[in-house]
Amino acid sequence: MIFVLLETANQRLTEPSLETLTAARDLALKLGDATEALLIGSGVRALAPTLKGLQSVSVVEDTRLTGYVPEAFAKIAAEAIQKKRPNTVLAPGTEVGNDWLARVAVRLDLGLAAGCTGFSVENGALKSVTRTNWGGSLLEEIEILSNPKLLTLQPHAVSAQPLTGGEPTVETVTVTLDERDFRVRMKELVRKEKKGLSLTEAKVVVGGGRGLGNAEAFKLLEELAGLLNNAAVGATRVATSNNWRPHSDQIGQTGTQIAPDLYIAVGISGAIQHMVGCKNSKKILAVNKDSEAPIFQRADYGVIGDLHQILPALIAEIKKLKGA
Amino acid sequence: MKVLVCIKRVPDTGGGFRLTPDSKRVDTTNLGFAISPHEECAVEEAIRIIEKHGGSSTVLTLGPTAAQEQLREALAKGVSSAILLETEDYESWDAGAVAQAIAETVRSMGFDLLLFGNESADACNYQVGLRVAHLLDLPCVSGIKALEIQERRAIAKRDSPEGWEVYELSLPAVFTVKEGINVPRHPSLRGIMSAKKIPIEQKKPIRRDPQMARELLKKPQEGRQLEILGQGVEAVAKVATKLRELGAI
Fold first, then answer.
1. Considering all CA atoms of chain B, what is the largest pairwise distance in Å, rounded to the nearest integer?
2. Could you give the 3-state DSSP secondary structure of residue A58?
3. Considering only CB atoms, which chain A residues are within 8 Å of B157?
4. For the segment A45-85, what is each residue's pLDDT rounded down to a tens digit?
């Protein structure tokens, strides 16, 4: 049996949870196996019957389990796995899912493959998984030797399909939780003031890197972004490490992953740490004085030359076009 | 206050990868190495906490003899002491094995605060810190971007799309940090010189049976065709036309 740990937000399944259910159903089909799931939270019971095509859904309803409570969730999942003895356990590869399954893995002393993007089935058994390394710039095929096999699914690795089939059996699970299971829990949520268009919302992102040379030069990027539709300014790790821009502007493996219609990469060499963060852009336009820069191997459009000359000229050209 | 910070040595890959002929690993010939980014921030955080509250910090890694280079970097920045769990065969260690070796090493050392990176740049396993915490029976919050110590409590914040999630734990506690928690300093020349005199404690860890076995590494498909729009300022008219075509203007 394949067992899915589901992540919810406001009594709804998150998109990565739906993707994980899709991947689990697909794997179950290949293995000729059943799929079951675990739902934990407050007011999540109503979701269980909507998980069509699953054999069974275990529900833990507890008002103390609103939001993600790490140790309690790990204890419940570990107990359910010991009782149900699945051959594979899947969770979404989100911050919550990776945290949750890591805690389960150490409790049960099992291996865990985080950030999986594919499965290799041989002779009716899961032989190996493909998972992301270097934020997705490399893929690793790896065999999980311990049983059950634990894995988290990289978000966007599969697209969520509607659930079809019969309604699952709903099992109500009761668990004993003590103070210890609540020693890690969110105390409060401090909402952030929203300022401007975020990098993930922008349709066009203008990013600057080492080639900018200083914080001042980012004004050129700001001006260009101001002339473009729904545009925001981002930066590379070099730019944020040098304090030219705040870390919240960083695009990359350790920053924000963006997926705009157009990414304009200015003075950016194309280090893999950065490219992982922008590879989902529909189009990439690179401006760089070094025609050998790796960015040109991963861009759709290229302009070779000095950004300090090209950007002012481009800004003037766009102003002219807009004025006309 | 005793702070432990665990780091990983990773290759500085720059613009691309070359794999070894057997596709089992990244070919690191001619590559430099660095402290993995989140851990670099964990080192900085450890130093700042000791500067503010007093005490000592220890940096630890599991890796080859050459990983002394990364430990020395942390010492040069201001960490007080270093431990190397030395193994040349470090790529065969899965997250569970690394966590067990770390937990066994530090169990009786009395650390108040244990810092890890949220995930390493190369393996992206997201689990060593969480595993160590459980093995030591300590509370852990992963992926934090702010940390403050008040008496025997740690107030940590996670950055979520909804806002700042605030957690409060009693020490001792474990945190895995994310880049952005601070901007790491560069070591000073004096720091580099004095770090050379600090002895690195070396231990040979015993690897328990692996739970994971890598078969191979491969590069994902990349499907972009480059069109050069031009060189220098002569290109701007064509760029502007393209921007209009793409709906950006």
1. 68
2. strand
3. 190
4. 999 999 999 999 999 999 999 999 999 999 999 999 999 99
Q: A84 in a domain, yes or no?
A: yes
Q: Do B13 and A271 touch (CB under 8 A)?
A: yes
Asked whether residue A215 falls in the same domain as residue A171, the answer is no
Same domain, A12 and A67: yes
Q: Over the range A58-94, which residues count as b (16 or more CB within 10 Å of their CB) and which as e? A: bbbbbeebeebbbbbbbbbbbbbbeebebebbbbbbb
User: Quick check: A99 and B130 CB within 8 A?
Assistant: yes
Mean pLDDT by 10 residues, chain A (324 residues): 97 96 97 97 96 98 95 98 98 98 98 97 95 95 98 95 96 94 96 87 97 97 98 97 96 96 98 95 98 96 98 97 83
Interface of B with A in 3-22 (CB under 8 A): 13-17
The pLDDT, as a whole number, for residue A324 is 66
Say if the Cβ atoms of B127 and A299 lie within 8 Å.
no
A255 assigned to some structural domain: yes
CATH (domain of A260): 3.40.50.1220
- Any idea where the domains of chain B sit in the sequence? 2-221
A108-136 pLDDT per residue, tens:
999 999 999 999 999 999 999 999 999 99
Q: Which two tokens stand for residue A159?
A: 């697209």
Q: Does domain B2-221 have CATH number 3.30.930.10?
A: no
- Contact status, residue A208 vs residue A239, Cβ threshold 8 Å: yes
